[in-house]
């Protein structure tokens, strides 16, 4: 379960230029749920993404992951074993193949080896529809296929939480629907908590748990 209580974050940009990105934000997301954090640009979505992703620990308030303060996890272990982020920019390595890009979290974390790693990798490639593209480089893929590589990379370690930053932002509507269907399938089949961060309310119309942000504050919560 994700529990956030009175989360606040201020960016100090100068003596008289402080930006209050989050102000006393509180919400919960149950384990194994698919949820959305939605709001316009500047609402605080990216700040929450960075905090939940373990990239920012300079905040006020309490963030609990499985009833443990996120700050008490080893930062590297948390990012390797508990959470994976699908960034909007993908951050694929151009010189590596689909297969090699997918295995990067394993390379640094060493969670799986040998036959188990091979079985997991082949399973994920089949799931995301890239089994026949495993040896291709990113520049040989379509936008939807590139997004699927980013999803495969997030899945390889079987994380407890997946954070998806504007997962359909650069895709046409048909491909975007396919990506959302895939994330929903992952949520159901692997009991992975999936959190979608987006400004597009149409994208999340089938997601029951929705946290609406505005100006760094929770405007309303749908459950």
Question: What is the secondary structure topology, with strand pairs?
Answer:
Blueprint: E1 2-12, E2 18-29, E3 34-38, H1 45-52, E4 60-65, E5 68-69, H2 75-82, E6 83-86, H3 98-102, H4 104-109, H5 114-127, H6 143-155, E7 161-165, H7 173-190, E8 193-198, E9 209-214, E10 217-222
Parallel strand pairs: 3-8, 3-9, 6-7, 7-8
Antiparallel strand pairs: 1-2, 1-4, 4-5, 9-10
Helix pairs in contact: 6-7
List keywords for this structure.
6-stranded mixed beta sheet, alpha/beta, single chain, 223 residues
Descriptive overview:
The protein has 223 residues and is of the alpha/beta class. The protein has one domain (2-222): P-loop containing nucleotide triphosphate hydrolases (Rossmann fold, 3-Layer(aba) Sandwich). Helix content is 32%, strand content 28%. It has 7 helices and 10 strands. A hairpin with a 5-residue loop joins strand 1 (2-12) and strand 2 (18-29). The longest helix is centred in the last third of the chain and has 18 residues, at 173-190.
